[in-house]
Amino acid sequence: MRKIKADEITKIVKNLCMETNYYLPEDILDHLKKGLKKETSPLGKKTIEIMLKNAEIAAREKIPLCQDTGIVVVFVEVGQEVVIVNGDLEKAINEGVRQGYIEGYLRKSVVSDPLFERKNTNNNTPPVIYTRIVSGNRLKITLLPKGAGSENMSKIAMLKPSDGIKGVKEFIIQTVKEAGPNPCPPVIVGVGIGGSFEKCAFLAKKALLRKIGEHNTDGRYARLERELIKEINNLGIGPQGFGGKITALAVNIEYFPCHIASLPVAVNLQCWVSRHKQIEI
Q1: Distance CA 143, CA 17 (A)
Q2: Tens digits of residue pLDDT in 234-254
C-alpha cells in the first residue's frame, strides 16, 4: 500500500485553484489563435484579440482570467492501493479550496443554501467532488473552476430512442442557439449521451476536460462531433455573441450504455475561459 498525506493533497488543490484561474490552457490559447485567423467578422476578430490580451495579462500579473472564479469541480481517481493518512480525502480537498481562494484573492461565489438562505460561505467551499476508485497506487486530481454564466445555459433532456441521431443533434444545436451570447462564446460544448438522468450530466461535464482538437476514439462519435461544430459555427453567434464564424472551439462527446427505453442527452456549456488542470501523484 502507498501512503499519501492529506496535507499533500491540500497543497496540490490550493495551487490548482490559483493556477487554473490565472493561466489559460495551451490548447485553448492555440485554438483561439486559430479562430482569430478564421473569423471573418471584424468585431469578432477584435473580440478574440481582446481575449488573447486578457489571457496574457492574467498570466503575467497572476490575476484571474475572469471575475467569475467559479464553483470548484474536482475529479479524483484514487488507486486502490492508496491510503490517505493524517486526514481524509474530502476534508483535504475542501481545505485546499479554502486556502486557494483566500490566499489567491479569488472571488468567493458559493452560497451555503441554494434556496432559503443564500449566504456566502466566504471561502468558495464546498467544492463538487467526483471520486473514482481505479487500479494502481496513484492519485489523480483534476480541478475545474466552473463559472455560472455558461453553467446556467446547460440543459438535459430525456429523449426517446426513436428520436435518434437527428433528435440528439437538434437538441444540442438548439441549446447552443438559445444560449446565444450568455455563455461567453466561443464555447466548448460538452455532451453526455446515455447512462441515466444524472450520468449523462456527469459525462457532459467530464467531456469539457478533453483537449481541444482531440475527438472521441469511436469514429462514429468523432464524426458527429465534427458535424456538430460545423453546424454550430454556422449559427452566426460568434465571439461574445457579436456575430461571426467562431461560436464554438470544440464539441466533445462522451457516451455510456443506457436502458432500452431511454436516450438521455446533456449539454454542459463552457465559456472560452476553459480553466482546468490535472496533477497525478
Answers
A1: 7
A2: 999 999 999 999 999 999 999
- Detail the DSSP E strand segments found in the chain: 2-5, 71-79, 82-85, 128-134, 139-146, 155-159, 187-195, 248-258, 263-270, 277-280
Together in a domain, 195 and 243 = yes
Question: 52 lies in a domain?
Answer: no
Of 129, 261, 268, 130, the residue nearest 196 (C-alpha): 261
With beta carbons less than 8 A apart as the criterion, state whether 250 and 31 touch: yes
Instruction: Cell 467531456: give the residue.
Output: 207
Shared domain check, 114 and 96: yes
pLDDT tier for residue 13 given thresholds of 50, 70 and 90: very high
* 126 and 165 in a common domain: no
Q: Are 16 and 277 in contact (CB under 8 A)?
A: yes
Euclidean distance between CA atoms 259 and 17, whole angstroms: 38
Average pLDDT rounded to a whole number, residues 267-278:
97
Q: How many domains does the chain have?
A: 2
In the chain, helix, strand, coil percent, each to 5? 40, 25, 35
| Same domain for 193 and 176 | yes
The chain-wide mean pLDDT, for the chain, equals 97
Residue 205: which domain range? Answer: 149-274
Q: What is the pLDDT of residue 129?
A: 98
Q: Residue 79: phi, psi to the nearest 5?
A: -65, 140
Rounded mean pLDDT of 1-15? 97
Task: Give this prediction's pTM.
Answer: 0.95
Task: Identify whether residues 103 and 182 lie together within a single domain.
Answer: no
Q: Are residues 188 and 137 in the same domain?
A: no
Residue 105 — very low, low, confident or very high, per pLDDT cuts 50/70/90? very high
Instruction: State the CATH number of the domain containing residue 112.
Output: 3.30.360
Q: Is residue 28 part of a domain?
A: no
